[in-house]
Amino acid sequence: MEQNNSSRRSFLKNISFATAFFAVGGFRKISASTVFENRKNVALRFVVASDAHYGQPGTTYDAMIEKITTQINMFHKETPLDFCVINGDIIHNEKHLLPLAKQKLDALDPKYYVTRGNHDMVSADYWNEVWGMPLNHAVVVKNQAIVLGDTSNEEGKYLSPDLTWLAQVLESNKHRKHAFLFLHIPQKAWTANAVNTPAFETLVDQYPNISAIFHGHEHDQDGVKLLGTRQIPCLFDAHMGGNWGTPYKGFRV
Q1: Cα separation of 195 and 11, whole Å?
Q2: Using an 8 Å Cβ cutoff, are 246 and 239 in contact?
Q3: How sure is the predictor about 248, in pLDDT bands with cuts at 50, 70 and 90?
Q4: 124 SS3 class
Q5: For residue 28, which of 224, 218, 178, 187 has the smallest C-alpha distance?
Q6: Confidence at residue 3, expressed as pLDDT on a 0 to 100 scale
Q7: What is the SS3 assignment for 19?
Q8: Is 125:96 a contact under the CB 8 Å cutoff?
Q9: Which residues contact 73 (CB under 8 A, 6 or more apart)?
Q10: What pLDDT, in 10s, does the model give residues 215-233?
């Protein structure tokens, strides 16, 4: 019992979120204590982090990305993760930084996937060469669909995802219990740097198994907004690097 209490204190001391969101036909806020107490009953557990801005001048980008990977590995050791997603703006503009950032992220113990952000200013071919995965791709983890879409280009423009590709992926995975979407740039003009894509909202509203959508990009956002008639939770995770945003840096579990 004392060992369990010690583990609980360690977990609550080191975890950086006050609440989590549980997506099953909606969401509800749960405390970090509840997360710990139910950690063995979780069907799927993953981390999402974004906006490392590796290589941004005037920032301690090496230290920041190393701290995040260390913290994720510590969390994973105590509370195993099924995977991680690094949701865009991994580097800061310069193409040569991408393989260097990959070397840092390869220190992650859990398997991880990536999306391109507007500061990841590289071609589709180079992205695939470095990561071994295309800009738009989907994987299945424990029979859950993990959908990773591209929302920028080599020039760093803010874009909508490829809706034709997305519709095909969602249709082919509609039989799965849950689908989770990861897009760096928000697709509704809730925030200063989002884009507004009504067709995206219409599309995702058609698929009841979409349980949550995850966005980066907005370093000052660390909360949830609700999209469409189904009120799909769209979750932000602030930032893990860069020079603006919330006064803290971290990741969402």
Answers
A1: 37
A2: yes
A3: very high
A4: helix
A5: 224
A6: 47
A7: strand
A8: no
A9: 107, 108, 109
A10: 999 999 999 999 999 999 9
